[in-house]
Amino acid sequence: MAIRRMHRPAVALIAAAAPLLILTGCSSSSDNSTSSSASASQEQKSALVITDQWVKASDEHMTALFGTLSNNSDSEIRIVSGSTPVAGEVQLHETVSEGGVNVMKEKKDGYVIPAHGSLTLKPGGDHIMLMDQKEPIAAGQEVTVELRMSDGSTVPVTATARDFAGNQENYQP
């Protein structure tokens, strides 16, 4: 009889714990999938790295972001747009020569950075324009621009403004 009494409580305990074990198992796999998608998102963000970034100090109208964009992933990355609190519009630009004059034009298809490759944004070349500037940007001020990729992910870039008088291109919308 003593064995039966001990056996019944053990069976009751196992029966009571079974739903909790099942829920814990479901919860654990759900947490793993959430972790996996958080890791994938983090990998996308860490795949694009910008170095030597800076913004041209400007009193009004427009300025530009420069630096080197590096892709540390096994797939190409396409930057398609951007946004910033200091300007009404962000455009991806290239500079081309038309009739001996350097002209800035919007690069409608965005910038493609090949797998394990890089793209240099520089005055007189590819650059990110901050149009309809909302306030003066002084040398030494930090400016944040959020870049958006074709997959919808975003990467914030913080750059310090500096004085620069070179490359006075014309803008051709």
Protein described:
Residues 1-30 form the signal peptide. Keywords: Signal. The protein is α+β, with helices and mostly antiparallel strands. The protein has one domain (47-171): Immunoglobulin-like, CATH 2.60.40. Helix content is 27%, strand content 44%. It is built from one helix and eleven strands, in the order H-E-E-E-E-E-E-E-E-E-E-E. Strands 1, 2, 3, 4, 5, 6, 7, 8, 9, 10 and 11 form an eleven-stranded mixed beta sheet that branches. A hairpin with a 4-residue loop joins strand 9 (142-149) and strand 10 (154-162). It is globular. The N and C termini lie far apart (93 Å). Residues 10-41 have low confidence and may be disordered.
Ordered list of secondary-structure elements with their pairings:
Blueprint (H helix, E strand, L loop, with lengths): L1 H46 E9 L6 E9 L5 E7 L3 E12 L2 E6 L4 E3 L4 E4 L5 E7 L8 E8 L4 E9 L7 E2 L2
Parallel strand pairs: 1-10, 5-11
Antiparallel strand pairs: 1-2, 2-7, 2-8, 3-6, 3-9, 4-5, 4-8, 9-10
